[in-house]
Amino acid sequence: MAIKPIEFISNAVRAKEIVAVLARNGFADLLQKLDLPPRILSAFGTSAMVKRSLWERVRLALEQLGPTFIKIGQLLSTRPDVIPEALIGELRKLQESVPPSPFSEIEPIIEEGLGQPLSEVFDSFEEEAAAGASMAQVHFATLADTGERVAVKVQRPGLDKIIDADFDILLWFARQAHERLDDLRPYDLPGVVQTLREGLEQELDFRREARNIQFFTLQNSFPEEICAPKVFEDLCSRRVLVMERIDGQRLSEIEQGSDLAKRVARIGSRSLFHQILINGFFHADPHAGNLRLLDEKRLCLLDWGLTGQLTRRMRFGMVDLFLSFIRGDAEQVARTAMGLADSGDPVDRRALERQIMFSMREHYDPATGQGDIGRAVLQLLYIFGRNGIDLSRDYSLMAKAILSVEETGKALDSEYNLKTEFEPVLLDLIRERRSPWRMLRDARESIMQGLDYIQSLPDEVYRILKKIEKDNLKLNLQHRGLEELDNTISDASNKITLGIILGCLIMGSSLIITTKIPPLLFGYPIIGLIGFVLSMALGVWVAVDILRGGRKK
Fold first, then answer.
1. What range does the domain containing 497 cover?
2. Residue 243: which pLDDT band, with cuts at 50, 70 and 90?
3. Which of 474, 395, 492 shows the shortest CA–CA distance to 80?
4. Between 373-386 and 393-412, two packed helices, what is the crossing angle to 10 degrees?
5. Catalytic residue chosen out of the listed positions 166, 285, 303, 320
6. Known active-site residue 285
């Protein structure tokens, strides 16, 4: 589907900026394959940054494209099933060098979110931002009624329009790449972009982050060791989040290898695996920047915009996956992954097992328990995705969280071993799963569910028969792979329409020429001459378009 000029009118400036950044970072060849208008491509250089790797150039391009694309890169780093580990490593380096928005622009957003003036809610409010990112910034304040010190997180102005424009352009690029580049078609880029858009919209709803914090606080089994900021729910809205101000110690300030550092690493690991395997609800981005140590006693988890959730079946599946992985049993890892997949697509099991064995040898030694387990899990998820095993996105979030905790633990303690930390929690879940009472309850629930299905079956059959009797049974059929045919028919129809208009214009101009109706130019009516000129210009344009299309084929 060739791009039409009308499609660039609303976002023309931004579209040209994106093309310019991609071309400058060495992706001109890719742009050429997307059938962009020549006048857009010819305006920019095509020199590649040969001194940098492909994935490094991807990261640099995202940084140069601004807030929306930086956030997209951060979200993509949670999808090890879609992108390789090397790219994930680069995306985790994304830097957000965005100056804070002026207070004059931020104040109306805060007051709109609060539903009242700042002076009625806060006794004092620091106009200078204490922290900032691509999507939001944080200001410190003091509540007027209680005197509590709080942090006010507020979205940047005009963010919705920027995100909508960038995603509209990105979705068009994704569709073009999906249709024209066979190597990228298995990744379903339009679907990935749409998923990223939905994920970003959810993360930008601060009411969701407030609920995440409150839910974690209710489920927290170790409040004396780990916590989250207190949320002032009545002051929170979609674009404003008011929570307790945290002034704790950064983990980078703790002496590596000290008793305190080892204790902090142990607390963080135990909490994360308890969140994943026992509660099934976990912080999906627990890197060192989102952790603070309070009074050398408790860890505080910040930034709850990105969380994961695992059902009981998913958690039990993770137990089987972890146990197989620890034992180095590639065959069982493959069987477990296939059992957890959302679809039943055929999989080359032998090829899958070979890739799993290679990944284990590269990242982890089952005999000693040494290695980078987080990176190994990331690599496994990428192998699963490449072989058609589509696991839930929450597994990807879990893998990223495990990698973050492992990296933080090793930064605190050079002798840190992730396997040693998660084994106790793993054993707790195994005992819960194999408890006789649990097995009896599961059996009873399965029997009751089966009886419910049997009881509802006659009603379903009767409903289908009644539809057939009334000629009201409908079948929805979806044709795939006909996009090019649709585009060809549309293009041909447009050219036929132009040909008819061109013929009518020539005939009308000829009739006017014979009438000698003034005003005249060189003895001929001006209106007729104008018609002939337009006809010639339109005919040349149609001929050039046809010839150019033929060369492309």
1. 483-552
2. very high
3. 395
4. 160
5. 285
6. yes
Q: Which SS3 state, helix, strand or coil, does residue 143 take?
A: strand
Number of domains, the chain? 4
- In a shared domain, residues 191 and 278: no
The span from the first CA to the last CA of the chain, in angstroms, equals 13
Q: Are 391 and 293 members of one domain? A: yes
The answer, yes or no, to whether residue 251 has pLDDT greater than 60, is: yes
- 65 inside domain: yes
Among 310, 225, 224, residue whose Cα is nearest residue 269: 225
Lookup: tokens for 88 = 């994930």
Q: Residue 294, SS3?
A: strand
Q: Are residues 345 and 464 located together in one domain of the fold?
A: no
**CB 304, CB 153: distance < 8 Å:** no
Q: What is the pLDDT of residues 334-353, one digit of tens each?
A: 888 888 876 666 788 888 88
User: Which long-range contacts does 122-127 make (Cβ < 8 Å, 24+ apart)?
Assistant: 123/147, 125/152, 127/103
Q: What are 296-330's pLDDT values in tens digits?
A: 789 999 989 889 898 888 888 888 888 888 888 88
Phi and psi (nearest 5°) for 31? -65, -35
The better pLDDT of the pair 158, 239 is held by: 239
Q: Is residue 322 assigned to a domain?
A: yes
If asked whether residues 505 and 460 sit together in one domain, one would say: no
Give the single-character DSSP code of 283. Answer: E
d(CA 241, CA 131): 14
Query: What whole-number distance in Å separates Cα of residue 355 and Cα of residue 370?
Result: 20
Residues 546 and 487 in one domain: yes
Residue 224 falls within a domain, yes or no? no
Question: Could you give the C-alpha distances from 255 to 144, 260, 411, 414, in angstroms and in order?
Answer: 39, 8, 10, 12
307 has which bridge partners?
283
Whether residue 464 sits in one domain with residue 525: no
pTM: 0.71
pLDDT band at 36 (very low <50, low <70, confident <90, very high): low
**pLDDT of 177-206, one tens digit each?**
778 777 666 667 787 788 788 878 888 899
Average pLDDT, the chain: 81
| Distances 143 to 102, 126, 475 between C-alpha atoms, Å | 22, 12, 60
Query: Looking at the structure, do residues 339 and 406 belong to the same domain, yes or no?
Result: yes
Q: Is residue 310 part of a domain?
A: yes
DSSP 423-483: HHHHHHHHHHHT-HHHHHHHHHHHHHHHHHHHHHHHHHHHHHHHHHHTT---------S-H
Q: Comparing 96 with 64, which gets the higher pLDDT?
A: 64
